[in-house]
Amino acid sequence: MKLNIKGDISSVIEGLQIIANELNIELSTEGHPIQVNNKKDCLSVANQDDQGAITFDKPIHFFRALGIWLEQFKEKGQFSLSEEVQFHMSGVMLDASRNAVPTVSDIKKLLQKMAIMGLDSLMLYTEDTYEVKEHPYFGYMRGRYTTEELKTCDHYASQLGIEMIPCIQTLGHLREAIKWNYASNFKDTDDILLVDEPETYTFLENCIKATAEAFKTNRIHIGMDETFQLGLGKYLEKHGFENHITIMNRHLQKVVALTEKYGYKPMIWSDMYSPLFSKDSNYRDENGQIRSDILAGIPDVELVYWNYYDNEQKVYENNFKHHKELGRTPIFAGGAWTWNGIAPNYGKAVATTEASMRASKKEGINEVFVTLWGDNGAETPFSTAYPILQLFAEHTYNKEVSSEQIDRRFAFCCDGKFDDFMILKQLDETPGVMKDNMNISMTSKVTLYQDILIGLYDENIRGLELGEHYRNLVPAIEKAKQNNHKWKRLFEFYEQLARVLSVKVEIGLQLKEAYDKKDYEQVKSFLSKLDWIQTNVDILRRLHRDIWFEAYKPFGWEVIDIRYGGIITRIDSVKYRINHWLEGKIERLEELEEKRLPHDGPWEIVDGLVGGNIYHRIVTAGNFSL
Fold it and tell me: Which residue in 545, 537, 539, 543 sits closest to 564, CA to CA?
């Protein structure tokens, strides 16, 4: 479609050239006229009497408005509508630290989609995957971004009205960064820095300086979360025991001084201050208020309250109020649940997003973002997060959001059918799992990787008829693949995953049952099934590999290759063991003699907690690396 976009477009002209290609429009003086006006706190689109109009405040609003204008023009022709922006900042945090490091090209694709949705910030979470020239082992062989790559992304984002914000760690979550000998003098534990050590602050200044060279923003996320062992390693040996909040505040003061030196306004994850919120906390005075000396010790930083777990609005409201006791309105971080295992946990992502967004609006939260974590190897493609990004975007511009609106906007912004994507949640939300998979069962990951002879999760899945579930899921995903042409590769991968599991998921239980009956013919019949699983797991691996190398740097895929290879080579040994038993070379299969116990038992399987997300706890009861 040709468009003649007129008016004050100086702030969006560079991004308009990018988005025009994405939206398949041609900018021409001969095109349909659209008059553009800039007005504070306004986002509206119209087309009346063959004259289009767009009114916007920030550049990001223009790109969203342009998409809405095109959508409405194709559907109605004549229209007039406006939206009310709910948050001053609404964005995405992309994890580049769990082996999957998105390429510059893939980040650009994400930025384009974000612009059309109207999401205005991108945090790139890099524990050690950014270049720090003074420390060549920092991010070594991990796919770290060069400074030039980050500058390229930052410039591209700014053209689209999106602020890129570095998101690093300056205390904990640094296991991969400080595992090398260069860091031996300034680490407290395996993943926490040694507070008060001069070398620590030299190292951190180098890290902060590196981000300042790459990004134009004056905002930085410096982490500080989940440092539960703070002060209990080398620090304890050197200084004795000290309360972790006291240690953290002192460290935070020093890090904030470094960020200020480079012109940054820092933010931190707030969870290490959660002990302050308890009503019976030792940190409260006789009036029940958080003690003034504690408050005075917290530096001037923005607090990011993260919660990806609760589906009750009241929980978020109460926690927002607790954060306000610290004298500041928090930033909120929700989750897209790209880290459930191999498949996205859409049920939990939608339920928690709906509750948290309603609470954020009610409590006057100004800034929100959605996290795309990649725990335990980033096996779930980050592209599966787009439906949840769309949900966040619609909540950003509307007080109330309907399912019809989400469907329509996702179809326009991402060329996909929202309901078809939701089918993928059934890979983990299986029989026996509670509604919306709120207890985070990871059925597909567990049953794909678990060993056929050892079957650590066999007792957990007994009686759930998962084979039938996955057999029925194959044609459902195949149909979704046909409905979503531009997402064919993604659906093909998950279709193959369901196909593999339809046979593999219960084979350990079936094999043991036949073995216990000493039914030699039945046991022998499993050999052909094992051949089929080997072949089809390799097909699955290759489909997964195509997706990985289209989106990520090569570093990190070796881990996934090893996991798939483990399935294939172990099946070879399973056949070897079965044949030896069938041929009478061994009297028994010791692996199948063992009674199956529930994983992590003894316990009752309640609310569908079928499995956990840690690979080495799935595949063996032995030591994986020690």
Answer: 537
